[in-house]
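ok trying again, last paste got cut off:
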Amino acid sequence: MHTQPGNDNWVQVELKAPAKVKSILIVNREGNGPYVERINPSDIRVGNDPDVTKNPSCGVTVTAPGIFKCNLAGKYIGLI
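nice, full thing came through this time. structure:
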C-alpha cells in the first residue's frame, strides 16, 4: 500500500503475522525518472499499528537503496 504523489508520502508492507525485523532491503527503480529521488530522505518504521506514522523508527535515514539494520518487531514495515 502507498500514498499518491505529493507531500508526506509513504509506502507500507503488511506481513502475515508480527515478526522480528533484523534488516530491510530497500530497492528503487533504475534510470533518471522522477522516482529515483522519492526515497531521499526516508525513515523506516516497524510496528503493529496500521498507521505507518505511529510505529517506531529503526533509527536510520534512507538516502539511497541498500540494506538497513533494524531491531524492531511488528506486522507493518513502512518507509515515510
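cool. The chain has a mean pLDDT of 85. The two ends are 12 Å apart (CA to CA).
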